[in-house]
Structure formats: structure tokens, C-alpha cells
Specification:
heterodimer; A: five-stranded mixed β-sheet; B: alpha/beta; 6 strands; globular; kinase activity (chain A)
Chain lengths: ~450, ~150
């Protein structure tokens, strides 16, 4: 019989290893095979592989930190605080031996699929780790920005007011950290601690070069795999080995990711932005519905990336020439992604994780406030299904808004601007356009999205 | 495995004089501080006590490992104290603690030091090594206990 164990403690200096040793000693005395993964400040050592999971009878988690159980699905798990493994390793092992393998009649049938899925799950797991760290930041930042709109949609422009402070907190700080955090924790998930720094820096650059969250995802994966590669394959003389985690890995991985973001990602991003801006300028006289369709789709495509920014800048520029219809289409299309996702989390709970269902509530508030970013965690977690759905919903909303001749005289504000007399013309039809887009977005998401892996 | 580097002869105290938990923590920190490993003694003490509050590092079997990872530590260092009489350290198993390892790790630490610490932590789980530490009278005997 083979057992698995994971030990981990908050400081990761002593208890993690004492618990591991203690379990190994007890197992040896009892004649049981055990593999103990330690998660301490050095990072993960003696890592449990999918092969181990397949062979094992049960898993002991002796940890005072969070341990993700997803990869151990089907295995009986004995949970205990880390000191329990030090004090009473024998008891834990006995519990593990007596634990019954979860009966799963489907196990054999699904087995052939497992390897392919495991590989895909690797990338997906890293992405989801990044997203799960980002969700609370997006919710907090978005709600604080929405709070500032309560004082009036222009109130934050007055320096020194509470509204301005709220905008600084939500927009200036929280949202500025969003992409770095996403990239940082994707990289952290791939390469442990050495990944965090290049990931954060790469994410920051993704924001600065205007590539939005899609650039951030690229930065996160590059940073993670570069750091991992340096950690595993760059061999140094023993005397320099100590410098690796504090100097060598952070320096080279950050440098590489940084250069990659600035030159390889940054250049095409700027080109896309310029191209989009040019194309839109040429379309001013195009069919109104078609323009709305394009603008709407652009708003939802990369939320904060070059395509979204080009559309938004186009609308704002037209305000100064007293053309108000495209702005209306743009705002409506920027509201439907978070609104549609929020609606989808209510209509089809089984397609979302608990975390996402909670994020859906915050997304609804962000949606009515025209904070498109509320949709980013969902889009980042499942880009190939969510982005087409929200683009379609936003494009239709944008087209409808143009066809209904809705006009908007402010570049932001969401629902708060609708309450101001004369800020929006054709208000009833405008609300209808947003509602239709929201419903279409939600239905498409429910149709496309698969249920999360249990 | 370079244990001397982390645990120098000047940081081994064979006869601790304290008789309660708080005193022994301070006694060990004094040794560490006199050896010039701390930039801010009070801040480090606070970090150690905060860690003790989470749950006692008196892990039983006669061992206590007060520790903190904090920016007030200049470089990773161990301090070893031994009390033949034993001190009540609120141990998990209720026994008195005889062997005290005070662990100081800077906020930014390199892997080599952390690996040595994990090695020592593992060694402490062995009855034979604990017995040898407890009966040691010289620095060399302490080192030998870990190395064999």
C-alpha cells in the first residue's frame, strides 16, 4: 500500500519538514510506503505526480496553509494541522490506511480520457490560479469606482473630494494592479516563488503597453516558464547556487520577460491600435448599424486592450465634434459583458465555480456602472468561450443603440448617467438595447460554456 | 551541508538560566543579538512572539523551535540553548522542553540556508539525535550529532 502526504506551514521553515520527517519515520516503522511532498519556503519539493495519485491509497494533508485538492480527486483525504503530523504521525497514517477508496463506478470508463485532460488541466490550472487571485481585486476595485459615481458621474474630477479618492483607490490603484496580479499568479502557479517577480513585472508592462489582460496572460505564462526553466536547467557552481533565488532567477527572468513584452508584444499591440483607429476614422460615414456592430464588438473583445481602447477613444473624440450616437453604442456595449455574465451566473449556476458565482454579483454592479472590467475574470478563465459570447452580445447592443438613434453626452457613468435628464436621448430604447444584449450574452455563455471540472 | 555557518560556537548556550517561556525566548534572542545577527532586536522579538501566538512552537519531544522570518534579521542564524532541568514551553504534548532552537531568517533568504534549516528540522525528529544533543557538552559534539 502506498500513501501520499503534503506538509506545509505558514513560515515554511521548520514545521513543514519536521512533519514530513515524522510521517516518513512512522511509516517506515509501520512498514508502509509513503511519499511526502513538502511545501516550504524553498518551494515545492518531492512533488506528487499524477502517477503517484493513481497508485496511492490515500492522501494526508498536514498543513496550516491552503492546499488545492483538485488534482487529488477521487483519493480519500485525511486533513490535519501540521503539528498533528509531528505529534501523532502514527494516528494519521492509521486513519489513511483505514480510509476507503471513494467508490466511483465511472472511474474505469473515463480513464482513457484522463491523460489528455491532465495536460490541458496544467495550463488551465495556472490560468485559474491567476484568475482566482484577481477576482477579489476586480470586485473591490470595481465596486469602489461605482461608489464614486454615486456622488455624480463627474464628481471624481474635482480634486480632494471623497469621489476623487474613491476613483484613485478603485481605478488608480486596484485596477492598475489587476493585470500584474493576474500575470504574477499565473507565473507563481507555474514556477512557484521564482515566477512571481517576472510575472508581476511582465503584467505591469502588459498594462503599460496597453495590451490589457490578454497581454497579461501571455506575460504570466512566459514569466512562469522562463523562471521554471532557469530554476531547473541553469546549473551554477555551488558557491553561486545561493544567489539563484534572490538574484539570478529574478534578474534574468524579469529581463527576458520585460524585453519580450516591450518588443515582441508591444510593437504589434501598438500597430493594432493604430490600424483600428485609422479604420474607425474612415467609417464615420458608414451605415450606422454596421458602425455600432463593429464598435460594440470591439468594446468587448479585449476589455482594456488595444481594440477596446481604440473604440472608446473613437467615441470620446466624436463627443467633441458633437456626434453623440457612437458614444451611446460604446457605453451600452461596455455594460453588457459584465451584465450578461452576471445574468448567466444566476441562470446557470452549475456552469460556474462558487467563486465565479460570487464574482457575478459584483459584476452586475460593475455592469450597470459601465465598468467592463467586471467581465475580465470570466474572460481570462475561459477566453475561447466567453470572449465570442460577450463580443456577440455587445455587437448587437451597439448596433441596436445606433439603429434606435440613441445618443449619449458623457463618456462614462453607466446607469447613473441615465438618471440625468437629457444626458441620453431615446432613453427607453437605449435601455432595451442594453437589456437585449445582456440576455443574448448570457444565453450564448450558457450555451458555449462547459461545467467546471469537479 | 554547512551547519557551522548557521550555528556558530558563540551561539550555543549549554546551560540556560531561564525557567519560563518568555524568559527563555528573551535569553536566546540576547545571545543572537550579541552575535550581531539582528538589526532591530525588539522588532524580531515581536515577530517571534507573534508566531508563538498562532500556536506554540513547543513541538513536544522536549524540543522548542521559536522562529521568525523578518526584515530585522541580517542573515540567517540559529541559536541553540539547552536546559537540563527543562522549561514549560506550552508544548503540544505537555512535556517540558530541553532543547531550544531559535531560528532567525531574514525576509529575503537564499535557498541554501533554508535547505540547511529543513535538514536540521528533519534531524530533530530522531530520538537518537535529540539524546546526543542533550548530552553534548562541547560545540563539536553538537555538530557531530547532526552530521553523523
Amino acid at each position: 500500500m502506498k500513501l501520499l502526504a503534503i506538509t506545509s506551514c505558514p513560515t515554511g521553515i521548520a514545521h513543514t519538514y519536521m512533519a514530513a520527517e515524522s510521517l516518513q519515520m512512522a511509516a517506515k516503522a509501520m512498514g508502509i510506503e509513503i511519499k511526502v511532498e513538502t511545501r516550504g519556503s524553498v518551494g515545492v519539493e518531492n512533488e506528487i505526480t499524477p502517477q503517484d495519485v493513481k497508485e496511492a491509497h490515500a492522501l494526508i494533508i498536514a498543513a496550516d496553509t491552503q492546499v488545492d485538492k483538485e488534482q487529488f480527486a477521487g483519493l480519500p483525504i485525511i486533513n490535519a494541522p501540521v503539528q498533528e503530523a509531528i505529534k501523532n504521525p502514527k494516528g494519521l497514517i492509521e486513519n489513511a490506511i483505514n480510509a476507503k477508496k471513494l467508490s466511483n463506478p465511472d472511474e474505469k470508463i473515463t480513464e482513457p480520457k484522463a491523460p489528455a485532460k491532465a495536460k490541458q488541466n496544467g495550463l488551465y490550472k495556472h490560468l485559474m490560479t491567476g484568475v482566482s487571485y484577481m477576482i477579489p481585486l476586480v470586485s473591490a476595485g470595481g465596486l469602489i469606482i461605482a461608489l464614486s459615481f454615486i456622488f455624480g458621474i463627474e464628481a471624481f474630477k474635482e480634486k480632494g473630494t471623497l469621489a476623487a479618492a474613491l476613483m484613485d483607490i478603485g481605478g488608480g490603484a486596484a485596477f492598475a494592479l489587476m493585470v500584474p496580479l493576474l500575470a504574477g499568479f499565473i507565473a507563481h502557479s507555474i514556477a512557484d516563488r521564482p515566477g512571481l517577480v517576472p510575472g508581476l513585472v511582465g503584467g505591469m508592462l502588459a498594462t503599460q503597453i496597453g495590451s490589457g489582460f490578454l497581454g497579461g496572460i501571455i506575460a504570466g505564462f512566459c514569466a512562469g516558464y522562463i523562471a521554471l526553466w532557469i530554476r531547473n536547467y541553469v546549473k551554477l557552481p555551488k558557491s553561486l547556487e545561493g544567489l539563484k533565488p534572490v538574484l539570478i532567477i529574478p534578474f534574468f527572468s524579469t529581463l527576458l520577460v520585460g524585453l519580450l513584452m516591450v518588443y515582441v508584444i508591444g510593437t504589434p499591440v501598438k500597430a493594432i491600435m493604430d490600424l483600428m483607429t485609422q479604420t474607425l476614422k474612415g467609417m464615420t460615414s458608414a451605415n450606422a448599424g454596421f458602425l455600432g456592430l463593429i464598435l460594440g464588438g470591439m468594446m468587448a473583445f479585449d476589455m482594456g486592450g488595444p481594440i477596446n481602447k481604440a473604440a472608446y477613444a473613437f467615441g470620446v473624440a466624436l463627443l467633441s465634434s458633437s456626434v453623440f450616437e457612437p458614444m451611446a453604442a460604446i457605453m451600452a456595449a461596455g455594460m453588457t459583458p459584465p451584465l450578461g455574465l452576471a445574468l448567466a451566473t444566476v441562470l446557470a449556476k452549475n456552469k460556474f465555480t462558487l467563486e465565479e458565482q460570487e464574482a457575478g454579483k459584483a459584476a452586475s454592479v460593475m455592469g450597470i456602472s459601465f465598468i467592463t472590467e467586471g467581465a475580465i475574470p470570466f474572460a481570462a478563465a475561459d477566453p475561447f468561450r466567453v470572449i465570442p459570447a460577450i463580443v456577440a452580445g455587445s455587437a448587437i447592443t451597439g448596433a441596436l443603440s445606433m439603429l434606435f438613434n440613441c445618443a449619449l453626452r458623457a463618456p462614462h457613468g453607466g446607469i447613473f448617467v441615465l438618471l440625468i435628464p437629457n444626458a441620453v436621448s431615446n432613453l427607453g430604447m437605449y435601455v432595451a438595447a442594453i437589456a437585449i444584449g445582456t440576455i443574448i450574452t448570457a444565453l450564448l455563455i450558457i450555451l458555449l460554456k462547459k461545467s467546471p471540472a469537479k | 551541508m554547512n551547519i557551522q555557518e548557521l550555528l556558530s560556537a558563540s551561539r550555543v548556550k549549554f546551560h540556560l538560566t531561564s525557567n519560563n517561556k518568555l524568559d527563555v525566548i528573551n535569553e536566546l534572542i540576547d545571545v543572537l543579538n550579541q552575535d550581531g545577527k539582528l538589526s532591530d532586536k525588539d522588532k524580531y522579538t515581536e515577530a517571534v512572539l507573534r508566531r508563538e501566538k498562532e500556536f506554540s512552537t513547543g513541538i513536544g519531544m522536549g524540543i522548542a523551535i521559536p522562529h521568525a522570518k523578518d526584515s530585522s534579521v541580517k542573515e540567517a542564524a540559529l541559536t541553540l540553548g539547552i536546559s537540563k532541568a527543562g522549561i514549560d514551553y506550552e508544548a503540544l504534548d505537555g512535556s517540558l522542553a530541553h532543547i531550544f532552537f531559535l531560528i532567525a531568517v531574514p525576509a529575503e533568504s537564499n535557498d541554501v540556508h533554508l535547505k540547511v534549516l529543513s535538514y536540521i528540522s528533519r534531524k530533530l525528529m530522531h530520538q537518537e539525535i535529540r539524546d546526543r544533543l542533550l548530552s553534548a557538552t562541547t560545540y563539536e559534539e553538537i555538530l557531530a550529532a547532526f552530521k553523523d
